[in-house]
Amino acid sequence: MNLQSKESGVGLDYIARIFVLAHNTELRFVSKQFYLASKSPFTRAEYILLKYGRDLLFNPKQGVLRRMPRILCENTALALLGKIEFDEEKDSELFFYSIKKRWNQVVIKILNTFIVKDPNRGVFEYSNTSENGENNAEAAEYKVPAVMPAIDINKFNGKAVELALKLNNFETIRLLLFAHKIIPSYKNTSPEPYEIIAHKRLDLSHISYFEVYELLGKGQTGIIKLLICEGENFKNTYLVLDRESEKNRLEVVKHVLENSVDNDIWDFFYDGLGWASQKGHFEVVKLFIDYGADVHYNDDCALRDASEWGHLEVVKLLLDNGANIHAKNDYALKISSRKGYLEVIKLLLERGADIHADNDGALRWASANGCSEVVKMVLERGANIHADNNKALEFASKTGHLDVVKLLLDCGADIHADNDRALSAASLNGHLEVVKLLLDRGADIHADNDLPLIEASSVGHVEVIKLLLDRGADIHADNDLSFKYAAFNGHLEIVEMLLDRGADIHIGDNDALVLASEQGNLDVVKLLLDRGVNIHAQDNEVLKRTVSASRVEVAKYLIEHGADVGSDRNASFALACLLGNLEEAKHILESGEIIYHEIDRFLIWASQRGKLDLVKMFLDHGANVHADEDRALRGASEKGYFEVVKLLLEWGADVHADDDYALMIASQEGHYEVIKLLLGRGADVHVDGDSVLGGASFDGNVEVVGLLLDCGADVDAEDHSALRNASEWGHIEVVKLLLDRGADIHANDDVALKLASEQGHLNVVKLLLGRGADIHAMDNQALKGAVSYFRVEIAEYLVEHGAEVSSDGSASFKLACVLGNLEKAKHILETVESIHPQIDKLLGWASVHGKVDLVKMLLDHGANVHADEDRALRNASESGHIEVVKLLLDHGANIHAYNECPLSIAALNGHVEIVEILLDRGADVHAGEDHALRNASESGHLEVVKLLLDHGADVRVQKEVISAMNNKKRHRDDMIGYLVNY
């Protein structure tokens, strides 16, 4: 027996049935009642029921939801429910379909439908969640009738809530969460007793970390609170506590602490305290303390975090609640001194912080960061200026803070401490004015065997070297080490200067030439030869080491000027190979006078460069074709050297080496003939889950993709990566081919259409839609993606073909903006209340796309310029939108947000003008240990590097940068040259 109430208007329902059975549309003109019936959802419901029958009505493959979805609307679905006894086995698909379509009235009706289970009908099943979160089907036998829900809301491992979350259908989530409170109205007409079974609480064990993270990001705190209170098995409470503490959402944090039954939350309890302290959220910190948080957790990290970020009131609160001011060797005092937070430092000292902790670390750290006011204060409070061998002076000199160096010297710092280390440190880092000051104050220029000159020469500080030489530095100190360093590092101007000032060009048996040649510094080699260096020194070691380092141009130049390798046959062989002199190399090999331990390395070298004759020669003379996991074959395949690959295979190279890497890399690079050859020799097209096809589709070579398919590659393997990759990268011919070969266009909720839309490939979008892709898949995700990425043409095309977004909220606002309808966008902002929780995210979206008018509109309507740690400014800086950056700064954006991320990320991407704007507005060039300079250097943005150095960036990072660039073989000659000569 179905307990759902019947619809009002039974008469209309009855007439509708007559209308349908009559099979005569003219009947609607007989009377007003028949006319109304013709328009009624009851008529549609009657027609659908008649057409499909009860058993197949909502069958997922044969029912109305599959065959005639357009005829079914929410009212019709309600009418159908009024005509049938709801059966979970037959009708659950309607429940999920209604969630997907946001038919909340249908969802409500189904949730309020209860059925009677008669014990005479036997055992029935219901879903039960065990303690470990697993779903089991438990059988229960009742001796009395049981009134129970018609639908199990946790059916299919929580499909209902998962679907609602995926579609951002928050109203349905609320309905599901409150379903357990529904009490059915049941009039028992039998004297027998009966039992009422309510809906179970919504099982949330299947909700993932990322889904909760997205909810938090969308500001859905109301839903989060309901999940914690009304749901069951919610496993991500710790994430809520962590994020909301960081975001200063006091109400949510309090709600979590009061209502959570997640035992794991207490493992993360103190992380929340740490976040709140770091962000300066006083009320949240107080709340944690009131709930019993231990302020001493993790060595009083809360106090350390609050001190590091200058949150005076939070520091005071923590101290008032017993935080240990001396934790981690008085770290709170040291870190606040480093950052320059005077008021925090004063408070800590007043509360008893030890100014001498860690060898007067507060003074040292303040000096290193140039915080002159802090240095002055701690000295006045009794800090020992000579602590740790006068490290404060050394650090200030090293980082170039002239005012601090002067202050320390005026207060009695020992300029000669640690072998005049202050002068050496300033010289190494190129701080000319500091070097001048130290010399003027009596620093010993010859200290530590003239280390200042040697340090400056090794790095390339021309002006510092001039000053030191003018002041009497000994150019010959430590066997002319400054000269050798300059030659080794390719500092041409400095090498020339030192020679002009009397450096010994022949020192150490012409070491300078050997070092410059080995490093490939051709200009320095030319200069040294012009000045008379001995090219044959050290038994022709110059040319030998040049050849060993594969410096081709330098080797050629040395030979042109008379260098030779003498009687060393190994060196002669290496030289012949390097210069491509095959006959000479062959002659040396056949003479039997060389050692063979290097021949495998030469085989790999020749294979990677396509030198077929050399490869054959090495193989003929015993080179191991399998050396280093058949690296020769892999290298030749990557470069597409067909003849070399063929030769290596004939000599037995293993086509399967390193998981068929040769086939994989050849496919990615599009070398058709090589791929064909490898497959013909047995390479496995299915290796690594058919990822070869996915890689080839990514590259977009249609011939290669066709070849792989012809050889049996699975078109839908590796989670349909081939179609996905080709669509995302706009390879339309590959997309056509894959579809022709049967690729599933609907795979992963039509992700191919979504990706093509996001990436702006209109021709691919047209093709996919023409082949039947679902434009409405995943709640119109294709249109949403196009809008999010500001793909105007694609958005217009999708809208023309029926795609749509919800009529309110951020999606409609974005669509209006993309389509150029700013008036409509403004109207949505001013009239749609639900958009306001999203306005800060919209600001970030507009900023990343450089839409100045939109950014201004959003700011004028209350968007928070500081949202998500000034995400908008970071986005605009990263994307290079100058006018947006200016506008955000004019509206008070924090230039120092996220540890100077705007400057660092602009430098990384080479946006010179934005870097200049940020520096002019006060960005800290030294933040993150000169992270901006490091980013610009490693990314090859020379103009940004120049700008940062001109604004005082610490060139000491250059050694690390140059080393990293050389190690990664990223030979940016201009960049390295500029850095070493700065």
UniProtKB/TrEMBL annotation:
Key word Thylakoid present: no
The entry's keywords: ANK repeat, Repeat
Q: Which SMART domains match?
A: ANK (SM00248)
Q: Which organism is it from?
A: Smittium megazygosporum
Please give the name of this protein: Uncharacterized protein
Q: Pfam families annotated for this entry?
A: Ank, Ank_2
Keyword presence, Coiled coil: no
The organism's place on the tree of life at top rank: Eukaryota
Question: Matching InterPro entries, A to Z?
Answer: Ankyrin-KH/SAM_domain (IPR051631), Ankyrin_rpt (IPR002110), Ankyrin_rpt-contain_sf (IPR036770)
Gene Ontology CC: cytoplasm
Ranges: ANK repeats:
273-300, 298-330, 328-360, 358-390, 388-420, 418-450, 448-480, 478-510, 508-540, 628-660, 658-690, 688-720, 718-750, 748-780, 843-870, 868-900, 898-930, 928-960
